[in-house]
């Protein structure tokens, strides 16, 4: 049942993409830094979408890398604290001869 729903959703997305591509096939003039060129509108849309995906992945990856470094540091700190706690638990309890 789940595979059927996924297949239907993918087919709907594919049909929507095909219709967007069909209705946006007219050429447009694209002005970029070093000149101009004429491309189909759908190609410009796909290129802009792809560049957005790449930039998003780059931004998320850099944040993920820094968070993994922090996680490693915190795990090391936790291991050290657990070792210290184990050491403190193994110390004998001292008796005092103080009277109050």
UniProtKB/TrEMBL annotation:
Residue ranges of the TM segments: 41-65
Domain (Lipopolysaccharide assembly protein A) ranges: 24-85
Entry annotated with the keyword Coiled coil: yes
The entry's keywords: Cell membrane, Coiled coil, Membrane, Transmembrane, Transmembrane helix
GO cellular component, one term: plasma membrane
Residues forming coiled coils: 64-91
Pfam families, sorted: LapA_dom
This protein's record includes keyword Secreted: no
Matching InterPro entries: LapA_dom
Protein name: LapA family protein
Originating organism: Solimonas terrae
């Amino acid at each position: 049942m789940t595979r059927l729903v996924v297949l239907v959703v993918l087919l709907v997305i594919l049909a929507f993409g095909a219709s967007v591509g069909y209705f946006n096939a007219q050429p447009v003039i694209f002005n970029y830094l070093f000149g101009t060129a004429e491309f189909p509108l759908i190609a410009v849309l796909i290129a802009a979408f792809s560049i957005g995906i790449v930039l998003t992945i780059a931004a998320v990856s850099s944040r993920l890398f820094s968070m993994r470094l922090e996680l490693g540091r915190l795990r090391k700190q936790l291991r050290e604290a657990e070792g210290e706690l184990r050491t403190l638990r193994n110390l004998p309890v001292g008796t005092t001869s103080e009277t109050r």
